[in-house]
Amino acid sequence: MNYINEQERRKIFEQFFILTFPKVKAFAYKILKSEGDAEDIAQDVFVKIWADAETWKNCETHNGYIYIMVRNQIFNFLKHKSIANSYQEQLVGTYASSFQEDIHDHLYAKEIELLIKLTVNQMPEQRQKVFMMSRFKQMTNNEIAEQLDISVRTVERHLYLALIDLKKITLFLIFLYLH
Q1: Which CATH architecture group holds 123-178?
Q2: Mean pLDDT for each consecutive 10-residue tract of the chain (179 residues)?
Q3: Which of 17, 42, 146, 164 is the most exposed place for a label (fewest CB within 10 A)?
Q4: What is the domain class of 6-89 according to CATH?
């Protein structure tokens, strides 16, 4: 695909999309029995195809390849949906009995707060400063960059990495909660 310009690539993809999208959507609908979910799956597949030229080549030359992609996307969708439904059922069960567990909720909140503090304290010093200034002092990225004499992009990168660290703790807590 490197030998064609962007405008030609778009035109070829548009033709491919117009020709193939209804078939892909119909295939997904046969399995999912949901118009909305089938359309979402088909759109996700075409976004992946557009983003990766190698995938696109495979889809153009091997018609079955796109259906393998759809099948895999459906499997991932159903797996995610199953996990989400299970989680919702657990939440409903938890909230039904939560009136009796006020003290436990308070303890869990304190434990979560402690884990967040520990996570922040484990961050490198500069990331910790940037995070504290952003989240607790409500400073803008520009203000932080100016005060610490670093670029705004560096501030954004520190915040991004800090949030990744905190997401790991969140996933850990969800894992503990589900088990």
Answers
A1: Orthogonal Bundle (1.10)
A2: 71 86 92 90 89 69 80 88 76 58 70 81 91 90 94 93 84 67
A3: 164
A4: mainly alpha
